[in-house]
Amino acid sequence: MSDIQQIGSKIGITSPRVLRKAEEFVQLLEIRSNSGGLSALKLPAGCTTVACIDLAASTCNHYADKAV
Predict the structure, then answer these.
(1) Cβ contacts of 50 within 8 Å, gap of 6 or more
(2) Which PANTHER family does the record associate with it (predicted)?
(3) Is the distance from CB of 21 to CB of 56 less than 8 angstroms?
(4) Which of 13-17, 30-34, 62-66 has the highest mean pLDDT?
(5) Who's near 66: CB < 8 A, 6+ residues apart?
(6) Comparing 43 with 8, which gets the higher pLDDT?
(7) Distance (Å, rounded) from C-alpha 57 to C-alpha 41?
(8) How many C-beta atoms lie closer than 10 Å to residue 4's C-beta?
(9) If you write DSSP's letter for every residue of 15-54 in order, what string do you get?
(10) What is the pLDDT of residue 42?
(11) 8 vs 18: CA distance, rounded Å
(12) Which of 18, 46, 60, 66 is deepest in the core (most CB within 10 A)?
């Protein structure tokens, strides 16, 4: 099970469509952050993964349980 799937299941998102979109966002973020913009923030990997999952869920009209 990938990090995205593990974190997604912890926050209540198990939709394969959302998780695939989150993986796409993580890959784009990794490509873009190597240019220096986001790397200056020094965010932990888990933080960016959760943000990508939340963005993917919003994009797919599938919202995470914020209480978790």
Answers:
(1) 7, 11
(2) ORIGIN RECOGNITION COMPLEX SUBUNIT 6
(3) yes
(4) 13-17
(5) none
(6) 8
(7) 24
(8) 21
(9) -HHHHHHHHHHHHHHHHHHTTTTTGGG---HHHHHHHHHH
(10) 74
(11) 9
(12) 18
Q: Give the residue among 47, 7, 6 at the shortest CA–CA distance from 29.
A: 47
Closest CA to 17 of 53, 46, 49: 53
CA distances 23 to 16, 40, 67, Å, are 10, 22, 23
In terms of Cα–Cα distance, which of 60, 65, 61, 66 is closest to 24? Answer: 60
**Residues whose CB falls within 8 Å of the CB of residue 19, separated by 6 or more in sequence, listed in order:** 4, 5, 8, 13, 53, 56
Tokens coding 21: 């979109």
**pTM assigned to the model:** 0.79
**65 and 12 in contact (C-beta within 8 Å)?**
yes
